[in-house]
Amino acid sequence: MSAVRVAIVDVGANTLRLLVAVPDGPGVVPVHEEKQQLGLGEEVERYGYISAAKCAEAVEVAQAQTRRARRLGCERIEILVTSPGRQSGNSEEFAEALRRGTGAPVRILSSEEEGALAWSGAVASLESPAESIAVCDVGGGSAQLVVGTRQGGPAWVRSVDVGSLRLTARLLSDDDPPSADSVTQALDLAAEEFSSIVPPVAQLGLAAGGTARALRRVTATFDADGLAAVIEALAGLKRSKIVERYGYISAAKCAEAVEVAQAQTRRARRLGCERIEILVTSPGRQSGNSEEFAEALRRGTGAPVRILSSEEEGALAWSGAVASLESPAESIAVCDVGGGSAQLVVGTRQGGPAWVRSVDVGSLRLTARLLSDDDPPSADSVTQ
Between 208 and which of 49, 85, 122, 360 could a Cys-Cys bridge form, CB atoms 3.0 to 4.6 Å apart? Predict the structure, then answer.
């Protein structure tokens, strides 16, 4: 019997995100994921409500995502609205428009519910979680801090109505790059919002959400020194330079990639290929606009596009390397260092890939981050 598929459409301050998954113990196994940038949080920050035009745009995206979920065989679909539902002056009308447009149930999450779900999702991804765990989930419109235990689940939740998109729209969007005064005001506002919050002590701390994923492209450490270094690195850069340096695919680069892919798929069709598939590796996992990039490739080439997980990429690298051996050993380790990531895979001739680990550091990414400013690079850059 095939596993039951369920789908969630997560309506957040930055994006509408679809997850199709099957249950797997306390967690889930993703079957399909996609997201669409919408910026509802910026609209709420600017006007205090979601305009008719932006509401219609959100309904159109939600309709497309729920149709995709139904085509993938989902038996249950639910739409969850996070901070835009709590902060907008017309949240109930917005939720009703989503219900009418998609035919799916819509629920506006309280900050406590959002925090508890973020905690559960983060903890479910751990192989060996500590007994007590703190999760900080910084979204576009709000931030949740949650502490709980493996046995009891989330036990302590606090929320502040400041998130990355909302803070940017309020204080950091007028100048590019933002002025030193604007950066100071943003830091002071964030410090003020969190000043009265004293969380219980936990054995492990996790950062969750899109903001954390974006920060991971800049720093490997989320302590005070690491975050201070991030602010110093980013504050003086224009947005276009941040996009170029830290992991978004620009419109120009996307168009260039589509043009190349079109030429390659045309060549494949002329050569009589009956099946063509486009596989996206580390750029698809690391880019903040990976789904938009994949969709542009689909539209431009007419070929199916799949963003490989690090496990899939590692398994394919292992299989390709082992297939080239005339007399392979019984157990084989393959280290595949690419431009954006590196995979270490161990497996056996009989069983195939059995153990996969991946790090988001590759030759091109390391060069772009630390070794591209000077030619030759300085000794300090090489050491870093």
Answer: 122
Residue type, 380: D
As given in the structure block, the two tokens for residue 239 are 């947005």
Residues in CB range of 251: below 8 A, 6 or more apart: none
Would you call the peptide bond into 177 cis, given omega within 30 degrees of 0 as the criterion? yes
Q: Which of 289, 151, 148 is nearest to 206 (CA)?
A: 148
Report CA-CA distances (Å) from 6 to 16, 24, 57: 17, 12, 24
Query: Which tokens sit at 166?
Result: 């909302």
- What parts of the chain have a pLDDT lower than 70? 1-2, 244, 247
Residue 209: name the closest of 261, 144, 113, 304 by CA. Answer: 144
Contact 9, 17 (CB under 8 A): yes
* Enclosing H/E stretch for 118: helix 111-124
132-138 sheet: strands from edge to edge: 153-160, 143-149, 132-138, 204-208
Q: What residues have CB less than 8 Å from 130, skipping those under 6 apart?
A: 150, 202, 203, 204
What is the C-alpha separation between 14 and 293, in angstroms, rounded?
Answer: 17
Which residues on neighbouring strands pair with residue 6, listed in sequence order? 21, 76
Spatial distance between the Cα atoms of 138 and 134, rounded to a whole number of angstroms: 13
Amino acid at 207: A
What 3-state DSSP class applies to 92? helix
Are the CB atoms for 136 and 206 separated by under 8 Å? yes
- Rounded CA separation 117/208 (Å): 11
Instruction: Tell me the two tokens of residue 290.
Output: 């990976």
